Amino acid sequence: MIDLETAGGGPHDVCEIGWQDVARGRDGRWRVDDQRGALLVNPGRAISADTMAVHHIRDVDVAGAPFWKQIAPSVLRPEGGVVALAAHRAGFEMRYCTPSLTGGARWICTWKCALRLWPDLPRFSNQMLRYQRMPEGLIHELGLPAHRAMPDAYVTAHHLRDMLNEAPLDQLLLWSGEPGLLPRVPSGQDRGKGWDQVSEVALHALAKDRDIDIRFSADTELRRRGELRVAEPASPIQTRLL
């Protein structure tokens, strides 16, 4: 499980990387183990006030830290390898954890998988999942402060553990390679409705929305109803990432 904090939105703006391993035991069950940590990273530029207000990492904190490309492989490509890397809304981490840094590792997006496995939950942010689900074994203090790399990775690892114990790894990878399947319409006049409650006319309109997850969710419902409309390509699915 990987979590990044950044200085802004540039391609090398990472200022902290955190990790928490999830491993499979001899009994076949997945568990959160003791391998976790965090490293500060020098983003090579000033950290914006907007991002400091979120994670509280200052320029002085990272002044002597290594640069991203110097430190990333040691975390993303650990000795012994990984079956996959994971993050909550993994598309963000994947912007920085490029295939050249990860060795082409596969990715699991715990946000997308939560939509599939726990669709009845009202919200799906990392911290909301934490308090809605209260994962077994999560030590409250280790998951704090929020919006720092290691605590966030630690919390997300508990969601990942439970997902892997509910669904096969390959299924999580498949869901992660697709857009998010939203359980309810997120906005507009049908906001809050399940897709099966939306009229066909409204579904066709939503299938043209600018948001890729809304388009995919509307298309999925249309296909369920037997519509012949073929979903437009959602965006290139990265099969080798990290």
Helical percentage: 25-40%
Instruction: Please tell me what the overall shape is.
Output: globular
The rounded distance between the terminal residues' Cα atoms is: 12 Å
Helix/strand structural class: alpha+beta
The succession of helices and strands, N to C, reads: EEEHHHEHHEHHHHHH
Textual characterization of the structure:
The radius of gyration is 19 Å and the shape is globular. Helix content is 38%, strand content 14%. The chain is built from 11 helices and 5 strands. A 3-stranded antiparallel beta sheet has the order 1-2-3. Strands 4-5 form a two-stranded parallel ribbon.
What's a quick, concise take on this entry?
The chain contains eleven helices and five strands. β2 (14-24) and β3 form a beta hairpin.
Q: Layout of helices and strands, plus pairs?
A:
Blueprint: E1 2-6, E2 14-24, E3 30-40, H1 49-55, H2 59-62, H3 68-76, E4 85-87, H4 90-96, H5 99-102, E5 107-109, H6 110-117, H7 126-133, H8 149-164, H9 169-176, H10 200-206, H11 212-224
Parallel strand pairs: 4-5
Antiparallel strand pairs: 1-2, 2-3
Please describe the structure with a list of short key phrases separated by commas or semicolons.
single chain; 242 residues; alpha+beta; three-stranded antiparallel sheet; two-stranded parallel sheet; 11 helices; 5 strands; 14% strand; globular; disordered C terminus
